[in-house]
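Section handout 9: paired folding examples.
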Amino acid sequence: MNLRAEAPPTASLRRFGRATRWVHRTTAVLMLTCLVTAACLYVPQLAELVGRRELVVRIHEWAGLALPVPLLAGLASRALRADLGRLNRFGPHDRRWLRAVLHRDRTPGSRPAAKFNAGQKIYASWIAGATLVMLATGLMMWFTQLTPLMWRTSATFVHDWLALTIGIVLAGHIGMALADPEARRGMRTGSVSREWAEREHSLWRP
């Protein structure tokens, strides 16, 4: 008797490998460090509470410089590279997913998604582009001798307002994560339930 063939299927699916989870966690810590230190620099009440402005500036600068490092290091992982490829592809089912969201259509099957849905793809692309802009403008502000005053003034304007936008978008991202315990479990442990995967990512074939 073949006991292996008769064994029931596992109730969970592997969603993220160790490298992907490590990149997500370290990037999140660095991004939150940038936002918290920025708030301490620009909100007078927080600045008075924290003090030591020079130290806060240095932490902010080095956390910003380190932001791309986890992803660059994680590119050594084949699984992470595969996930980035999936995030970079937008298909007909993604357009259908967006239409359903815009029309608030929650009927079964109205929001088809593969491993990542259209919202996750748009968020990933936006946050990656925003991070590059923040890094470029931050370097202009840091190395003042390399750029004209007009460039530095424009960079400061873009850096400050984009930082506020990133804070709002990240708050939405965290709010959506808090509303979906199974998605958080997938990023925390690497595994999700088969039922959740079939319901939320019906086109995903692990």
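Moving on to protein 2 of 2.
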Amino acid sequence: MPLIPEEPQIHESAQGPRAVPASGRTAQTPRPVPGPRPAASPRPGRPGPFRPTAPAQRAPHDAPAAVASTAGAVKPGPSAAPAAPVPSAPPAPASKASATPQVQLIPASVEGALDAAEEAVDLLLESGRAPGEVLVVTTGDPHPWAAHELSFGEAPYWAQHDAGDDVFYADAAALSRAASRPVVVVAANGGADATAAALPLALGRAGALMIVCGDPQQINSVLGTGV
């Protein structure tokens, strides 16, 4: 009879076959690899692990340093003390020379002095002078405008003078009543004596400039300016 192999007996306590290595020793089941451990939380009262921080940005050299207080606020560094005010020098007193009006001479004959004065007035207005800043004085015959206005009476004539909004023409004899203006133009269309008497009065009415239209030698002898 053929031999029938016996079936292996299986015990209930067996957990399954184990791999047998070549050496014949039973291999142990590999242990699981532990993952990364979480950082331990610091204990109360003890500082946590030291972690280096990035260096703070330094302030510019010209900026004041800041000082940290114990409360966490930032106190500004010491500021420079304000400079003491420098006392200004007192204004220099005005000299007598600056108060004297400038004198300008326009050579003209007795007959052409009035026309030369009219041209001088036109140049003054073109240069920016206001009409109310100019007073024209005649030492001989009055200006045609003055003669015309006086024909209506002295009251309206002097009312235009007091208004001060236009060029005013006056005779040398009326200088005692005329007010001062920045510019006085003198037409020396009269005789030597009349011109000599009118020039000092006209100079006293000029605030900044006096223009004299006439004979240079006669005018220099009266004013002594050498213009």
